[in-house]
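To assess whether the prediction recovers the assembly geometry, we first specified each molecular entity separately, as shown.
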Amino acid sequence: MHETNAFRPTRKSLMKTDPALFSALVAVWLSFAIFIFLPVIRLLITTFYVDGTFSLANMRKVLGTSYNIKALYGSLILATSVSIAGTFLGYIFALAVTRTALPRPLKVLLGAVTILPLISPPFTSSISLTLALGPNGMLLKALGIGDFSIYGFLGTWISETLTYFPVAFMVISAILNTMSATLDDAALSLGASRWRMFTTITIPLSLPGIGNSILLLFGASLADFATPLILGGHTFPVLPTEAYLMITGMFDLRGGATLSFLLLVPALLVFFLQRMLLGKKSFVSVTGKNGARTEFAKLPTALSVFICAVCLFIVVFILYLYAIILWGSFVKVWSVNNTFTLEHYAYVFKHGQKAISDTLLIAFLSTVIGSVLAVVIGYVAQRKQFFGKRFFEFTSMLNYALPGTVVGIAYIIAFNQKPILLTGTLSILVAAYVFRYYATGIRSVIASLEQIDPALEEASMSLGASSVRTFTHVTIPLIIPAVLAGMRYLFIHCMTAISATIFLVSVRWTLLTTRILESMTELQFSQASAFSMVLIVIVFLADALMLYLLKVTTSKFHKPQEISYEKVGA
Amino acid sequence: MSEPAAGTPFLELRSVSKTYQLTKTHAIKAVDSVSFSIAEGEFVTLIGPSGCGKSTTLRMIAGFLKPTGGDILLEGKSITALGPEQRNIPMVFQNYALFPHLNVFENIAYGLRARKLSDDIIAHDVAMICQMLNLVGTENRFPDALSDGQQQRVALARALVLKPKILLFDEPLSNLDARLRIQTRAEIKRMQTLLKITVLYVTHDQSEALSIPDRLLVMNKGKIVQQGKPREIYDFPSTPFVADFIGNANFYDVCVISVGSANVQIALQDLEFDVSLDHCDHHPTKDEMALLSINPITITIEEPDGVLGKNQCVCMVEQCLFTGHAFSYTLAFRDTSIRVLQPNIQGAVTQFVPGAEVKLTFHAQAFHLFRIQE
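The predicted structure of the complete assembly is given in tokenized form:
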């Protein structure tokens, strides 16, 4: 198993020393070539090659339009605002859960409410914000505000912040939880006040989490397509929606490719920064054996009160938005005719049946294939030594780092022609999902393997088990929880994502998320709400099933802990 | 049992308790009505097995835990209601709890900065303490770049630089290797004598507990079972638990044959001994069964010479472990076994191999007799 030693002077061919690893690597690299490199290269060619030579003509044309420049600025400003506001909210929630005296049930409720935006389709908050604050919005009516437009920067910003702050919450609360509580004790016993403790210990030690969260949210907002499409309006264009409209509305594939290239640059930059940040040694674990188990010191009272007030406000607002969607799905015409009806659900189950079954089939296939790939890639990347390992790991994450719009456009460009003609098929949808979202699975497998002492595998082999038997009887059982945790996120993403696949759906294969978008563009808000509710319920049930499986598999030899979102990488 | 501390009590605990309510009906008394006091400048060690409540007691004194009953007084004033930051009782933690994002200088300066002292004073005080604790040259390093011993000294410096009147230690040496532990132990004692600080030191290591303190408190199951000078506790354990935990004694059920005015005659197997009444925790009666404790170090082991005097018997060696400064024997003793510790005096002591016959000499003046607890 540890045959391949990098320091061995004479290096034998990998094919001979470890044929299993060799064939796995060949197969994986081949799939990378087709589904990761080919699309990106074709995207670059479409952008920079005109009539067979390198040219900046496309770039000049796109940047020559002031509306596109506005979209570039819009994207960057939106991403910056969302990452700051979302991280702030996430930090407040994380502090509420880890450092305040709130009773446990309330903390569980806080955690549960933050899960909602994660398992919902990306439109949910946009739809309900439209229903509440849009034209004829009920909150506007209730507050008596007549002249207000939710469309534009403000609405997009609020909606994206609400959608993505749970990611910040997960990343930061993981950091806050792993901090040593004795540091709080030490600060206090040295005479620091609680405020001083908070500003000199808690905040500096959570900086890596804050940084990571800002980068994650920046990337997520940059790539978000659904929210600005609904709430951005004409006054506030952003790159993903502009690229989409250029391709679907003006059939300008070159223009779309060029716009998505503009998106690719900051996205890759963020990805590199994040890898650097995570690669640095974290402060958290310096000392070994802990003393008596102790709790974190509580925050100063004024701060606790402020934190609880903010959390209460946000939780109420989120629940309110979801209540609106639920109600909206049961009324005839939103705000015009508020009589109760089931007709939207009847419509969903009659005309949306194909979308439901297609979505489930695609999500199921992607989850299974993605998980198998994730186990192989994660295991190889964590436990084996081979040439080009870092590049291998980097490549596996590339599609995930790129905004969905970029991946979607790259896929239609790459697979729209022979030799690999895939447009309109099931495979292109599954491939897009697998190579984009298996990243969570890979991260989770790697994180889990890092926790498992290689001594366990060595023990197995020193007791006489072969390396294959060791893998199947020791390694696999130990990483099963991580695999399931990865599958969970993979499935949720496949059910709810839209940015990449909006370009890939066809008459033959359609998705629930695209049906929601269609309903929204036709201004059928109630129908969109009904579709959203159905999707949320399906995801929620599937998620509960996964969690149950996770619990069953982990109960025997694992502490009941969730794989943290930080490790998974969101 | 409680010997009054010399001088006026500096720190005093009055029937302090900590109860954890696990469920509505089930509660655990981690600390059960503990009272003791420490005089100014005294070095007191609190020892007990893990889970005996010693760390909980310490954390209540530091202010991290609120007692569920009783009162804690510092210089005659109650500090029970104060938070840890208001007490000026720094603590040296088992895992050192050095701030990983601050360098050595800032770690040591942390408490001074919290007291809003000027930069000049801070620089001076930190430099002084670094000198004292041999930390000069490490000021700009971060904790993860320090050796175990250095981390430990920074943790000590960080507390000492505040010139506290009382300092708490929570098993500060348990993460160090044996050699470093002995060095640091001497260091702590030296600093304490030099700076005349009052110290309460928690440990579960017997040699640590016996070697440093002026006074020792032995704790078990949430209660103080014995307190006194280390030598007294080692030589005169007041309960079988103390004899076992501090002295690692052999225990035997014995029958009381007769009770005299100063001595009590007991039968251990076929041997008979006279134990001083001063060494009994109760007044024994004839024919009573009692618990005899024999410290392994009080038994002499030698080559059999065919002559058996009083308090002597012949046994067979089952196991011999060499620990450097002593041989630790396990011997077959009639139908049971007995442990004997023989000091390796001048390295010239004969080592007996398993299977060898040896002559044991018991010294009954070191025996202790306890009532058998039901």
